[in-house]
Write a structure and sequence with these properties.
Residues 276-286 have a biased composition (Basic and acidic residues). The chain crosses the membrane at residues 80-103, 115-133, 183-205, 217-239. Residues 262-286 are annotated as: Disordered. The structure is a single chain. This protein has 286 residues and is mainly α. It folds into two domains: 2-254, no CATH class; 258-286, no CATH class. The protein has ten helices and four strands, in the order ααααααααββααββ. It has helices at residues 2-8, 10-16, 21-26, 34-40, 54-66, 69-101, 112-139, 143-149, 171-204, 215-254; strands spanning 151-157, 165-169, 258-262, 274-278. It has a two-stranded antiparallel sheet. α6 packs across α8 and α6 runs parallel beside α9 (171-204). The longest helix is centred in the C-terminal third of the chain and has 40 residues, at 215-254. The N and C termini lie far apart (56 Å).
Length: 286
Amino acid sequence: MTEYFAAVGFPARVLGRVPLLIRFLSSAGRTPSPYGLARYGPSYRFRPWLRLDAVELENIEELINHGADAHLEAFRASHLAVSGSTAVVGGLLVGGSSAMLALESLVEMHWSPRALFILSLLLSLLSVYFTLLQQRELVAMDIRTFRLWLWDGTTIPDQNDSSKRIRRSSLSSNIMLQAPFELLAISIALFLGAIGFYLGLAYASKVTLSKGWDSNLATLLGFVVTAVFSLSVFGQALGEKDRELTRCKAMMAEGEGFHILRTNPQDTEANSGYTETKDWTKPNER
């Protein structure tokens, strides 16, 4: 049942990613996640709504099966910290949407900007509300209960050792963890779209927003250029970082060409007293 809701909500989640579309376009040609194929089978290739959660589900699965209690506590603390920021941004967006709805010029143009502002306001409120529910749910759990909460109650064969079975991560839990941010992302996309519609319709309908020759056109162009440039720069940087991270993981998985030279042989990976050196020669050439 959870997957059906994920499929229905897929278009809305895609909408929330539109402001950073360039990031996702840069990774559109990637092969499907091996974890997703192992979990859902060959049909995973044709169920795009599952791709949005594959990375998080894999990380949670690793955590509940092999992570120590301290790792689980850190994972919960990070989500609580992010949810606090989500609530703050959601509150700011509620104020922004409310201010835009108070503009008298909205009554002189098509209803679409007002509808988008209302949807943005509603989703911002829901984002804050779901954040409060999430915090109340997570804070009340001890670590053992939290580990069980991330599990969906079924076991699957371990990909590294088929003779063993491991806990499978819960899609429902991940959706609950991601829901406040997803709603906020959709709300931001709608808010930006509403401003664009508002300025565009004001120009097309010749509604006077400010004094000056072609002030509506200048305002519209300024908004479009600034928004597109800013989102493109950040989205491209995120996409490039995704590709770099994928390349680094592949190189580390090969296990060739990397040596850690510690300044103190007693240092551990948790300490900072070491430097990394790279030897790109093949093992048989060393």
